[in-house]
Amino acid sequence: MHLSIPRAILAEHLQTVAKAVSIKSNLAMLEGILFTCEGNSMTLSATNLELGISSTFAVEQQETAKVVLPSKVVEIIRKLPGETVQLTVNLENYLTEIVSGQSEFQLYGFSPEEYPSFPQFSSQTVKLSFNVKVADFRRALRQTLFCVSNDELKPVFNGLLFLLQENRLTLFASDTFRLATTSCRVNKTVNSGKFLVPAKNLQEVLRIFTEEEETIQVFVSQNQILLNCREKKIISRLLEETFPDVERVIPNNFTGSATLDCLKFMQAVERSSLISEGTNNIMRFFFSKDYLVIRTASKYGKNQEKISSLLEGEEQEISLNSRFILEMLKISEGDKCIIELTGPNKPCILRDSLHQEYLYLVLPIKI
Asked: Do 104 and 141 reside in the same domain of the chain?
């Protein structure tokens, strides 16, 4: 097999699939990338058996052939000197020659026969499906993914809960100290239901699906999800744990509601956090009728910030983890942040003025 491919195009698609390559596996070929050439298209695929990514692009008319090359090929192609890459594969032993400019490499490839095939999603295996606009899905992921737990001892909270009901998709994320939920419109929905997706795999959606006017086709089988957008596909296993009923912890009654300028609020919290210490990053927030006072104290000293605030309801003070507040403010898109209060030692809710469907609940720190 002999191929001539523009180096920049090949490098781009290799970079797309590289994150699914297994770093260390008992199967050496899982540490490689599958090259599949069929007619005038080339597909690159990688999988670590939990996450699979494939990317397809056009090539000049070529013969049909496959080879698995070690993941070193990603960096090799990226650093080659020429504008074009010549790939020659010996289909008897899969020795692959790579030539570009004055640079030549020989890589020991693997037979593709034992490389894991991507699962096939058919009408018989798909439990539910829907289409969602890339821009809407990316926004929903940004609003929730940061709230997922990184504690592997809490596997259920390592995932993002998807709840599909008619033409609306709702996402839930929690690390047990806070909760984020949002929703977006979908169409061409087949069935309703809920499923749990590993958050680390969904991070690849933000990295790979960037053309916001495009549409993602989503298919869910018994234990896997497929996301397809144009020439790129992401397949992830589903988590089998049962996500708790987090909606029951969302309060319905509030003792106060404060509206703040989002940017000024974020800057004040950032300054105050410079002097905080400890894993909880404790910060005290005092809400009065016309302003918010932020106080921080540690072995390094003390700090106080005052910003304008419009409070409806009771004046009150609450202690919160400053990191939790900052992470939400950094992904907010509206000019205003609305904080709904339920009492000094009770949860509070933060909202983005631009997205009414978004809710972020934070538990207080009891001092």
From this structure: no
- Asked which of 114, 137, 170 is the last residue of a domain, the reply is 114
H-assigned helices in the chain:
7-18, 72-79, 134-144, 199-208, 262-273, 322-331
Instruction: Based on the fold, state whether residues 181 and 265 are members of the same structural domain.
Output: no
DSSP state letters, 75-128: HHHHH-SSSEEEEEE-TTT-EEEEEETTEEEEEE-B-GGGSPPPPPP-TTT-SE
Kindly state whether residues 177 and 235 are assigned to the same domain: yes
CATH number of the domain to which 71 belongs: 3.10.150.10
Listed residue (228, 205, 197) closest to 135, CA to CA = 205
Q: Are 256 and 314 in contact (CB under 8 A)?
A: yes
Domain end call among 247, 269, 286: 247
Per-residue pLDDT of the chain (367 residues; tens, 9 = 90+): 888 899 999 999 999 999 999 988 778 889 999 999 988 899 999 999 999 999 999 988 677 889 999 999 999 999 999 999 999 999 999 999 999 999 999 999 999 998 998 888 888 899 999 999 999 999 999 999 999 999 999 999 999 999 999 899 999 999 999 999 999 999 999 999 999 999 999 999 999 999 999 999 999 998 999 999 999 999 999 999 999 999 899 999 999 999 999 999 999 999 999 998 777 789 999 999 999 999 999 889 999 999 999 999 999 999 999 999 999 999 999 999 999 999 988 999 999 999 999 999 999 998 7
pTM of structure:
0.93
Please tell me whether residues 273 and 342 are part of one structural domain: yes
What separation in angstroms does the CA of 85 have from each of 58, 63, 287, 323, 366? 15, 17, 63, 47, 61
Are 15 and 69 members of one domain?
yes
Hey, how many other C-beta atoms are within 10 angstroms of the C-beta on 163?
17
